[in-house]
């Protein structure tokens, strides 16, 4: 068990990470008002690659770069590229709070995939929590109304892909450093985004929005460092719940920048997703580890 001081440090780091990620999403949403999805991601990747390479060198893990060519790392990078493309595309079409809430359904989807793939056994409590979470997603999406569109489906696809990526991450051996995984993932995302960008009409880059993309890359790198700090020498069950602060931060950011506020129905759906995710994580800590076939560790 971690000490109260360590957990407080972890909570502060998690809150900082969520704030950094929301600011990154807001900047990318602003950039998407001018740049198509492929171009926006390609530009951000260019800056992110420099940062990721500096982190690998700073941690003196350059000798392990060859491990990034393992098939499981490459597959994770391809899935993450799909997550990034779908999320950034949906981000331009939906309110920030709504798309953020839908992506937060990924831990719930992980439970479903774990059961389907026979990785984990789930009792009736978590089954009920998963049902509530999916009902929350449907409330946010509202498929029977005019607010339902392709962007909603793309956001849901992004959440499903993120769940698959995180499950795959758990199978990557500890001998491959997180910085190396991050560098390879960033490179693959850039290649895929650039390829997707061939289908788009790119805009001139000498404009204000490019600075948004550069800042977004720096914020993502800082957020990733905060996530690592949040989970290091802390109680995961205590710290993980604070990741849902990202919804509140996204609502505030959406209001300050675009004047968007979730309507009461969307607010209800967001609350259901958050409640389901928090309870699912709580039960994950309560269930004896002997019942699991894989270790319960946070994504790398």
CA-atom Rg in angstroms: 19 Å
Mean pLDDT: 85
First and last CA, distance? 21 Å
Number of strands: 0
Uncertain regions spanning at least 5 consecutive residues: 288-300
Biggest sheet, in brief? none
Tell me the structural class: mainly alpha
Write the element-wise H/E pattern from the N-terminal end onward: HHHHHHHHHHHH
Given the structure, what is the number of helices? Answer: 12
Strand content: under 5%
Structure commentary:
- This protein has 300 residues and is mainly alpha-helical.
- It is 72% helix and 0% strand.
- α1 (4-31) runs parallel beside α11 (245-258), α2 packs antiparallel against α8 (178-197) and α4 packs antiparallel against α11 (245-258).
- It is globular, with a radius of gyration of 19 Å.
- The relative contact order is 0.22.
Short description:
With 300 residues, this protein is mainly α. Helices cover 72% and strands 0% of the residues.
Tags for this model:
single chain, 300 residues, mainly alpha, 12 helices, 0% strand, globular
Helices and strands, with pairings:
Blueprint: H1 4-31, H2 37-58, H3 71-93, H4 96-103, H5 106-116, H6 124-141, H7 150-169, H8 178-197, H9 208-231, H10 236-239, H11 245-258, H12 264-286
Helix pairs in contact: 1-9, 1-11, 2-8, 2-9, 3-7, 3-8, 4-11, 5-6, 5-7, 6-12
């Amino acid at each position: 068990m971690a000490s109260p001081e360590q957990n407080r440090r972890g909570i502060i780091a998690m809150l900082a990470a969520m704030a950094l990620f929301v600011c990154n999403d807001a900047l990318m949403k602003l950039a998407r008002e001018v740049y198509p999805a492929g171009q926006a991601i390609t530009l951000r990747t260019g800056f992110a690659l420099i940062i990721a390479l500096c982190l690998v060198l700073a941690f003196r893990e350059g000798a392990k770069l060859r491990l990034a060519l393992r098939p499981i790392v490459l597959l994770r990078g391809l899935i993450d590229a799909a997550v990034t493309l779908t999320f950034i595309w949906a981000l331009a079409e939906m309110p920030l709070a709504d798309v953020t809430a839908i992506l937060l359904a990924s831990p719930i989807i992980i439970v479903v995939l774990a059961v389907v793939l026979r990785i984990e056994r789930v009792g009736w409590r978590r089954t009920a929590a998963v049902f509530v979470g999916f009902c929350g997603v449907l409330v946010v999406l509202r498929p029977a109304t005019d607010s339902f569109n392709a962007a909603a489906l793309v956001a849901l696809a992004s959440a499903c892909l993120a769940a698959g990526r995180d499950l795959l991450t758990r199978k990557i051996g500890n001998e491959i450093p997180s910085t190396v995984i991050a560098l390879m993932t960033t490179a693959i995302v850039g290649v895929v985004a650039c390829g997707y960008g061939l289908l788009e009409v790119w805009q001139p880059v000498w404009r204000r929005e490019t600075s948004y993309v550069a800042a977004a890359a720096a914020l993502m790198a800082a957020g990733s460092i905060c996530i690592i700090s949040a989970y290091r020498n802390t109680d995961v069950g205590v710290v993980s719940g604070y990741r849902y602060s990202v919804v509140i931060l996204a609502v505030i950011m959406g209001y300050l920048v675009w004047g968007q506020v979730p309507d009461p129905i969307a607010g209800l759906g967001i609350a259901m997703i958050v409640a389901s995710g928090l309870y699912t994580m709580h039960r994950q800590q309560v269930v004896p580890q002997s019942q699991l076939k894989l270790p319960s560790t946070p994504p790398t």
